[in-house]
Amino acid sequence: MSESDDTATFELCVVIINCRSSLEDHFNAGVDLVAQGLLEEAVLKFDQAIGLDLSYTEAYTSRGGVYLDLGRPQLAITDSNKAIELDPDNALAYANRGGAYARNFQLEEALVDLDKAVKLDPDIQMAYANHGGVYALTGDYENALVDLIRAVQMAPSQVPSLLNRAGVHYELGNIEEAFQDYDQVIRLNPSNPMAYASRGYSYWD
Predict the structure, then answer these.
(1) How far is CA 9 from the centre of its chain?
(2) Given pLDDT bands bounded at 50, 70 and 90, which one contains residue 13?
(3) How many helices and strands, by DSSP H and E, does the chain display?
């Protein structure tokens, strides 16, 4: 190999390393922005990471999760589809897509994806929370309660899971347990209007 070939190979390696470093910088910046609650800004960073590598599974997965949090379920489904295409065992992508299907009231599709998510990774709290929520929407409160108990055990300060569990307890006639969950939500978030309204409604029973 000539000296010019060696130089070209070295320069190519430098470009590849710099590109990988740059896309990881964008991805990590996106993750940091999500942690700060700056979701729109996080999407832009994930966009940049994907622009540098169209097969960057983690970026599709993370952006899909952010779209779900932003209330854009169809975009979440699109990103999750791509993440699953790239990695068929991507548990978080199934959990995100299941949550997005639930937002669209595609309940059968949601249950299938959330089942898949917990089979692939039994430690995804969001999957249990959404699974329980879907069961509640179908009127299957017994199974909803099983999932929501697990979700709260995994994340005791997760207000949506507590609210959903309180609602399921109420539907099952477990009024005292419902009050306990509403009280816990108020302790965690004293300005949560849903907790006060739902607890007040429960007093009438």
Answers:
(1) 42
(2) very low
(3) 11, 0
